[in-house]
Amino acid sequence: MKKTCVECGESFHGRADKKYCSAHCRSVHNNRRNRDFNNFMRNINNILRKNRRILADLNPKGKTRLHRDKLLEQGFKFSYFTNEYVTKSGRVYRFCYDQGYIETENGYLTLVVRQEYVE
Ligand SMILES: [Zn+2]
Question: Most buried in the list 7, 10, 16, 66, measured by CB within 10 Å?
């Protein structure tokens, strides 16, 4: 069966499930895919670490009320967090590791530090 190598684009003869013309092409392809994924993970880990640091810096006393713009000014990304805690009344805390916040009203947040009740 005539196939095209997904790495180098050369045609080769092989079984239907063969994707590479050689072991070399397979290893080059897999290494690159791993590297891309590692970069992707590293970028997300960096965002989460930065978010955590921003929360910790703005909340030295363990509980602070402030406007969400304060976090945005520092580069906080609201779509990245490590876990959520929903209270019985349906209020949602979002955490970046041990540092978290809950939205109150008019764009205000209360910053908190991880408590016993958090899963
Ligand atoms: Zn190849």
Answer: 7
Residue 117: per-residue pLDDT = 53
Please check whether residue 66 is in contact with residue 96, taking contact to mean a CB–CB distance below 8 angstroms. no
Q: Compute CA distances 99 → 7, 60, 83, whole Å.
A: 44, 11, 10
Ligand 1: centre distance to CA 118 (Å): 51
Which residues have CB under 8 Å from 75's CB, separation 6+?
50, 54
Q: Evaluate whether 96 touches 77 at the Cβ level (below 8 Å).
A: no
CA of 78 to the centre of ligand 1 (A): 43
Closest CA to 51 of 107, 115, 109: 109
C-alpha 36 – ligand 1 centre gap (Å): 19
Query: pLDDT digits over 78-117, tens only?
Result: 999 999 999 999 999 999 999 999 999 999 999 999 865 5
How far, in Å, is the centroid of ligand 1 from the Cα of 38?
Answer: 23
* Cα 35 to middle of ligand 1, angstroms: 19
